[in-house]
Amino acid sequence: MARVLTPRAEDFPRWYQDLIAKAKLADNGPVRGTMVIRPAGYAIWERMQAEMDARIKAAGAENAYFPLFIPESYLKREAEHVEGFSPELAVVTHGGGKQLAEPVVVRPTSETVIGEFMAKWIDSYRDLPLLLNQWANVVRWELRPRVFLRTSEFLWQEGHTAHATRSDARAYARKILHEAYEDLMVNVLGIPVVVGLKTARERFAGATATYTCEGMMGDGKALQLGTSHELGQNFAKAFDISFSSAEGGREHAWTTSWGTSTRMLGGLIMCHGDDNGLRVPPRLAPVQAYVMIVKDGEGPGGPAEAARKLYDALRDAGVRVALDDRTDTAFGRRAVDAELRGYPVRVEVGPRDLAAGNAVVVRRTDGSKAATPVADVVGAVLAALEADQQALHDQALAFRQSHTVEVASLAEAIEAAATGWAKVPWSAVGVEGEAEANAQGVTVRCLLRADGSVPDSEDEPDLRAILARAY
Questions:
Q1: Quick one: 313 and 261 in the same domain?
Q2: Is the pLDDT of residue 9 over 60?
Q3: Which residue numbers delimit the Aminoacyl-transfer RNA synthetases class-II family profile domain (predicted)?
Q4: Residue 79's pLDDT is what?
């Protein structure tokens, strides 16, 4: 393949920017920190949306929509929340040519406005649990923007729920964490995530507990791919989300919130991409098989007819397939574009191979090419899609394992974070050690129990901390 990207090993950030541009995934917007998601990138996001939305609905939540503009006074009702978001807020002070009586905030997240309406909609324990989700855009004014990873405006889903008891709220926050987020990331995105508890320093503003899915990127840094929060009764008390209990008393609800965003696209690129471009896991890929006419031949029975028959057969077998019949464009250029886009399988149909009764099946994951009898192409493609979904996950897992070290001290952990992740006893770090690590650009990504499960509190004994540099 012709070299079109800066090699990852030479300059990982430049490779990332090159790939986004050359694969036509996104462009920078006209306002600093904003992005334009191009059709190729948006198609992947739509697949992420569909897979996530199905899992959220399976967990019982229903989709709704809430306003983009939120009264500034709403945020001020929960002190820790407004303090946490103040540096990132975009505030509207004028509308219709006049100064507004009260400034409005452009939605950074919706706990406050949804809390206001939960208070109106909930009266009795019979109204609980109330399980809501919305797909929306949010604005957080970024000082150091990077496309898909940190932009001033991005797309996401945000779930918000209210429950009668703390245990119910915790169980639901964990349900989303594992059954929606972890399942999607591992089994569709092919990203092996570590699921754990955030420290008090790292948790969401206004939450009592934040759970996270952390993925290792191709340069050894961590990326937070999704979070689920227990909010306790903080927002319920601020917005009077209360209900009549079965015993006849009046109680405040227990609430949760949880979200994933277009940051997952950045994670997909940095976890699976290589020097030739994207590698999209087959279960996620908008185009799983790309049928290409190498060069058309003369008369009926040539590559064009054979390619269209293969296209139809793959489509009928349930494969998401596209046909490239642009024979007026050089085949090499089209093949490079297909590599950049990360289509899992290419089926190349040309006169020479067809004369021997074959097409060439090319697998993006390992770059292998196999001359395959035309009658066997559908089976070969289906087998490749299944195998390569697992292969991408396994490669990412092997990379993470080889770049994670177990250490005994904070100093060793900070040193190890230069090239990957460190796992260290939380007792060797603590609150003071965490501040020291932060001063050197290293963060505690999450806390785990010794058996790898998610703790309920950072005060549990024998916890392990994952330290890393992060995006």
A1: no
A2: yes
A3: 32-281
A4: 76
The DSSP output letter for 178 is I
Q: How far apart are CA 293 and CA 322, in angstroms?
A: 11
Sign of the four-CA dihedral 76, 81, 87, 92: negative
**DSSP code at position 220:** S
Per-residue tokens: 444: 């505690």
Q: Which residues contact 266 (CB under 8 A, 6 or more apart)?
A: 16, 146, 147, 148, 149, 223, 471
User: Are the C-beta atoms of residues 470 and 223 closer than 8 Å to each other?
Assistant: yes
Task: Output the CA–CA distances (angstroms, integers) from residue 77 to 69, 87, 114, 200, 204, in the order listed.
Answer: 16, 17, 13, 21, 16
Domain finish residue from 244, 272, 300: 272
Tell whether 284 is covered by a domain.
no
CATH number of residue 177's parent domain: 3.30.930.10
* Residue 355 is assigned to a structural domain of this protein: yes
**In sequence order, what DSSP letters do the residues of 273-330 get, joined into one string?**
-BTTB----TTT-S-SEEEEESS--SSTTSHHHHHHHHHHHHHHTT--EEEE--TTS-
Ramachandran bin of 225, using left for φ above 0, alpha for ψ from -120 to 50, beta for the remaining angles: alpha
In a domain, residue 455? The reply is: no
pLDDT tens digits along 101-150 = 999 999 999 999 999 999 999 999 999 999 999 999 999 998 899 999 99
* 204 and 67 both lie in a single domain: yes
Say yes or no: 43 and 184 in one domain.
yes
| Residues 301, 205 share a domain | no
pLDDT tens profile 397-440:
999 999 999 999 999 999 999 999 999 999 999 999 999 999 99
**Structural domain includes residue 407:** no
Total domain count, the chain = 2
- Give the C-alpha separation, 165 to 377, whole Å: 55
- The reply to whether 35 and 183 lie within a common domain is yes
At 300, which CATH number?
3.40.50.800
Residues 163 and 234 in one domain: yes
- What's the pLDDT at 84? 76
Q: Say if residue 327 is in the same domain as residue 193.
A: no
Q: What is the pTM of this model?
A: 0.96
Q: What is the pLDDT of residue 86?
A: 83
**Rounded distance between C-alpha atoms, residue 161 and residue 253, angstroms:** 10
Rounded Cα gap, residues 214 and 440, in angstroms: 20
pLDDT band for position 82 (50/70/90)? confident
Q: Of 272, 304, 333, which one is at a domain's C-terminal end?
A: 272
* Domain match, 293 and 265 both: no
Domain ranges, residue 300: 289-389
**What residues are paired with 273 via a beta bridge?**
none
Tell me which residue of 379, 374, 382, 312 sits closest to 344, measured CA to CA.
382
DSSP string, 81-97: HHHHHGGG--EEEEETT
> Rounded CA gap, 277 and 289, in Å?
16
